[in-house]
Amino acid sequence: MEAATTHMSPKSSHSDLRDPSRQAFLLLRxxxxxxxIIFGLDKFSNLLVDWTVYLAPAATAVVPVSxxxxxxxxxxIEIIAGILVALRPRWGSLVVAAWLLGIIVNLLVLGSFxxxxxxxxxxxxxxxALNRLATAFKK
Length: 139
Known about the structure:
By secondary structure, this protein is mostly helical. It has helices spanning 20-42, 57-62, 67-87, 89-110, 114-136. Helix 1 (20-42) runs antiparallel to helix 3 (67-87), helix 1 crosses helix 5 (114-136) and helix 4 (89-110) runs antiparallel to helix 5.
């Protein structure tokens, strides 16, 4: 049986943009920086969607505020998570993964939007992949 080989040539390094794993890291880091910031900002304008329809009533029972006020808090957290991914992808990716898990639980409690919950599970796996790549590309 042949030993596993790496795709990096002897002259390439972790900073080489031709390295597929470096490309994957940069792609995931970019997406998990930009998307949470955009979605977080949209919680204040609801241009993309009325975000309150995705909020289980149990959430506002635990935190007794209006659904829109709750979404303002969600927006702030998402913006912070995106910035954290940009600055510290190893830790930010874990924050995003935990956040996505919370969203999945919320959607399952809501009892609808199972398709969105499944999509968010895929995003959670992507955030965990970013975490693994971030350990290889520490500054």
